[in-house]
Amino acid sequence: MIVTTTPTIEGYEIVEYLGIIAGEAVSGINMFKDLGAGIRNVFGGRSAGYEEEMQNARREVLDELADRAEQLGANAVVGTSLGYETFEGMIMTVASGTAVRIRRAS
């Protein structure tokens, strides 16, 4: 399954648009990671705990997006967009795009 942020895929043509799809995930950060992030906010630096959680959430929503596209009979997703939001120790992640059927360009 090809999942791309671009509206087209080089070397392929879109033969059918199957609809807008999305994948969502809400992940909690444990209190120790949250405490470490709070300290880094004061003193500066990166929060490995949050970064790892965001990477996991991104993988989850992209996998979910591909699964939903496949259920529609798609073999690609174009125009994919990712969004993140944090709220009270939770990371909300969403990926959306357009499920399409593609074939190699002649």
UniProtKB/TrEMBL annotation:
Give one Pfam hit by family name. YbjQ_1
Which family is this sequence assigned to? Belongs to the UPF0145 family.
Q: What is this protein called?
A: UPF0145 protein B5G21_07870
Organism equals: Enorma massiliensis
